[in-house]
Amino acid sequence: MPQKVPFWRSALLSLALLVLFLGAWEIAVRPPAATGPALDPEYAALLGQAAQQGQQTPMPAPSDIAKRLVELLSDPFHRRGTNDQGIGLQIAWSLWRVMVGFLIAAAVAIPLGFVIGMSPLLNAALNPFIQVLRPVSPLAWMPLALYTIKDSSISSIFVIFICSVWPMLLNTAFGVASVRREWLNVARTLEAGRWRTAMRVILPAAAPTILTGMRISIGIAWLVIVAAEMLVGGTGIGYWVWNQWNNLSIADIIIAILMIGLVGLALDRLLGAIAQAVAWQE
Amino acid sequence: MTRIVSVEGIARRFPGLTVFQDVWFGIERGEFVCLVGHSGCGKTTILNILAGLDRPDAGNIVVDGMEITGPSLDRAVIFQGHALMPWLSAEANVGFAVSCRNPGWGKSKVRDAARAALAKVGLTDAAARKPSQLSGGMKQRVGIARALSVEPKLLLMDEPFSALDALTRGSLQEEVSRLVTEAGQTAFMITHDVDEAILLADRILLMTNGPQARVAEVVHNHLPRPRIRADLHHMPGYHPLRDHIMDFPITRSRTLAGTAPADYDARNPPAVHLGG
Fold it and tell me: Is the preceding omega at residue B226 within 30 degrees of 0, hence cis?
């Protein structure tokens, strides 16, 4: 059994690794001393910045990224035209889409999963559809969504819906189907009735399994929204990353990666906290 | 005495296998009946049929003049595993039963009734605890409180103490004996513990081994009440009673198994009066 490590020791090691990594990065991308023949000044003027750095956008050093991060975070919610919106605003757009898609998916998947879990017949009848549709990349739905919905923003919400629905559906069905026979028998001998049994016995019994499904779903939804927004454009952190790629702003891309990671972590922790609240132990 | 339960020729059959058949017995109001038999003779099935959780393949059961068609609040079950809901406190577990019995009651009334039921089994201080924070004996006490809180006409118990250690089992047996006597509760219990049956039962049904299990004998237990566990073996008539019953699971349940003797009448199995 692994021994419990005191927090400060692991934190210290994490910090040391981070410093080491960033330090190595900083040194590795330091521009070499100017060598080679100087460019024709006129040509250099045409090419702009790129010419001075040997025609290639340099990999930004951590110090550059930190500077840029401060810059971006100092005004995260600005809006200067459609293509110049703050990073906070972009993340908010993505979160909004994930939230709407996820909540609609939960509203469909949990009741449907309940019914599937309670009825072996429906479970067997719907299983082939679920098995075929579940492994489909959610982005494969995008063209169909664009064609039918004709709105890029709603289409990305649809894609979030489609990718979050499966884990919640399957987990709910599994959780409901594996509620202990003895608890159901208790409810039956107490003449609890269908609705009462569903709400007071089956739902709390299956809640931890359902929450596991929701946690998986929100993770997938946050992965998918970046790709979906890259595809449909307009707003959102995914679009913003792609836009910064077109602008060759490597520092912004790295910052976006960091932000996506942090938001994803926060979403997972949020669902984890809810799961903790409904967990029970024997 | 009036007959409250009448089991009329029930059977459980699978293709090519009859677990038990032609089982007849009655339970009088206020009586405590124990069914003793080896595992595999269909004891639990009989209890589940009485509870309405299972259906017999033949015959039927009449309770209070009505043939039973399903589970009912009038027949409460104390399950072998306590079957408490782990996400509810002891009080809420009992409260769930109380609110099922009395749908119109408000929250505070349900809570008071649940507390009163827990107080009867000595769990006043543990009301707020979840099952995971209770010992095995305490969990089963909650199970007993839950079953009694609906004030059933018939209390059904499926080896309720078999999962407990000997000391806890003993104190719970006395507790059940006291509660049932105080309330004049009609009860039916399945057990393979002969001493438990002697302590609790007015009548002990002995079942042969399956397949084709049947009630081979009905032993009337005339040991006077109240019976105290510690004194039981000093009571006159205890030893002949115990010896007679002990013979059954050890040898006779086997030798009597299979086809019934010619003079066997399923509706009136041989009766033996002992202990008084």
Answer: yes
- pLDDT confidence bin for B28, thresholds 50/70/90: very high
Output the CA–CA distances (angstroms, integers) from residue A17 to A11, A255, A259, A260, B64, in the order listed. Answer: 10, 19, 20, 21, 77
A252 in Cβ contact with A72 (< 8 Å): yes
Query: Six-digit token pair at B190?
Result: 């399945």
Write the pLDDT tens digit of every residue in A184-220. 999 999 999 899 999 999 999 999 999 999 999 999 9
Distance CA B222, CA B273 (A): 7
| Tokens linked to A132 | 């075929």
CB distance A256 to A230 below 8 Å: no
Write out pLDDT tens, residues A66-77.
999 998 888 888
Q: Is the dihedral of CA B118, B119, B121, B124 positive or negative?
A: positive
Q: Give the integer Cα–Cα distance in Å for B109 and A244.
A: 64
Q: List the CATH number of the domain containing A98.
A: 1.10.3720.10
The structural domains of chain B, with segments of one domain joined by +, span 3-74+154-274, 88-151
Structurally, chain A folds into a number of domains equal to 1
**pLDDT 10s digits, A226-247:** 999 999 888 899 999 999 999 8
Q: Which strands form B17-28's sheet, in the order they lie side by side?
A: B17-28, B3-14, B58-63, B66-67
- pLDDT top residue among A35 and A173: A173
Domain containing A139 equals: 87-278
Choose among B189, B166, B165: nearest CA to B177: B189
B58-63 and B32-36 as β-strands: parallel, antiparallel, unpaired? unpaired
Beta partners for residue B217, in sequence order? B206
Residue A264 falls inside a structural domain: yes
- The complex's ipTM works out to 0.90
CA–CA distance, B190 with A4 (Å, rounded to integer): 48
Tell me the two tokens of residue A4.
């419990």
**A16 inside domain:** no
A185:B132 CB<8 A: no
Q: Are B23 and B43 in contact (CB under 8 A)?
A: no
Give the whole-angstrom CA distance, residue A246 versus residue A64: 19
B124, B88 Cβ separation under 8 angstroms: no
For residues A108-127, average pLDDT: 95
| Rounded CA Rg of chain A | 25
Give the bridge partners for B26, in sequence order.
B6
Size of interface A-B (CB pairs under 8 A): 62
Residue B185 and residue B163: Cα distance in Å, rounded? Answer: 24
Q: Topology of domain B3-74+154-274, per CATH?
A: Rossmann fold (3.40.50)
A265 touches chain B (CB under 8 A): no
- Cβ contact (<8 Å) for A190 and B101? yes
Q: Which of A188, A200, A280 sits opposite B71 (nearest CB)?
A: A188
Q: Which of residues 184 through 203 in chain A touch B, CB cutoff 8 A?
A: 185-186, 188-192, 196, 200-201
Inside any domain, residue A185: yes
